[in-house]
Amino acid sequence: MKISTLLLANPAFITATVFAATLRPVPDFGDNPGNNQMLIYVPDQLAPNPAVIVALHGCLEPALTYYLEVKDLPPASDKHGFIIIYPDTQKDSHCWDVATNKSLTHNKGSDSLSIVSMVKYAIAKYNADPSKVFAIGSSSGAMMSQVLAAAYPDVFSAVSAYSGLPYGCLRGSPGSSPFTSDPACSKGEVRKSGVEWATEVRSAWPGYNGSYPPVQIWHGTADQVLDPQNLQEEIKQWTTVFEVQLTQKRKDDPSDGYTRSIYGDGTQFESYLAEGVGHVVPTQVQETLRWFGLF
Ligand SMILES: *[C@@H]1O[C@H](CO)[C@@H](O)[C@H](O)[C@H]1NC(C)=O
Ligand SMILES: *[C@@H]1O[C@H](CO)[C@@H](O)[C@H](O)[C@H]1NC(C)=O
């Protein structure tokens, strides 16, 4: 069948492919030590100097699945004109490398550096705003979001992490997947002081003396994959990095059963505990875009 016949015969297909942008691969985006794939979503109506959001899938799934799962994100891009990068990793059961010193360290290599190459490619190609680069991720993608915040604070402007682990928790583990990693982190058995966790973050780029991107984290109390104790560890980590303390707890924010904790003046760090929610907390695109200061 000719394409034109197909389009005419199927109005839904027209809506999906003609009037909205599509997800497409970018074969050569630069230095790629993690051997990752880059997919990009560029809206038809790109904003001038657009923001860039890196959207990071979890383990056991390709980027395409995450693109379909977080279904409010592409329409938000169509509406507001920002670019979305969907990095994809296939090795280690599709889990991001959050265990090797290469990936955990500024400009040392592996997946984190490949993701930074994707960002630099998008900035150059679309004249994007380097001060509006964000990362969002679920599970393994949440772990990687925090790696990017710690190791590339010069690249990322804010991150939002759904159901992850503290930065550095899996350092030195044989892998980063449920099958290859040391299970102590996922069980919530790796407990450190705020100072120890913050020292981890600072080790990502020794000598860096600038500020870190604002961090928003989410976790469910019924998470059977990554124990909710990890939320407490992440809170210790980032409140120490930012030198902030709890100032407000808001019940049922943004919806029933969620408790939002605000620290300091609320601009550097916030956390959400989702009562009865398992792995992973569904992405709240609106709350994350607000955190990024986009809308
Ligand atoms: C990774 O870095 C830590 C310090 O942060 C160090 O103690 C450890 O030996 C390093 N591991 C390897 C394999 O180089
Ligand atoms: C921060 O780092 C920059 C570049 O490494 C250096 O030029 C500057 O003196 C440092 N500032 C402080 C307060 O240490």
Automatic annotation (TrEMBL):
Residues 1-20 form the signal peptide. GO terms for cellular component: extracellular region. It comes from the Eukaryota. It catalyses: Deacetylation of xylans and xylo-oligosaccharides. Its EC number is 3.1.1.-. It is found in: Secreted. GO terms for molecular function: acetylxylan esterase activity. Pathway: Glycan degradation; xylan degradation. Gene3D superfamilies: alpha/beta hydrolase (3.40.50.1820). It is an enzyme of class 3 (hydrolase). Keywords: Carbohydrate metabolism, Cellulose degradation, Glycoprotein, Hydrolase, Polysaccharide degradation, Secreted, Serine esterase, Signal. The keyword Iron does not apply. Its main location: secreted. One of its GO terms (biological process) is cellulose catabolic process. The keyword Electron transport does not apply. Belongs to the carbohydrate esterase 1 (CE1) family. AxeA subfamily. Monomer. Esterase involved in the hydrolysis of xylan, a major structural heterogeneous polysaccharide found in plant biomass representing the second most abundant polysaccharide in the biosphere, after cellulose. This is Carboxylic ester hydrolase.
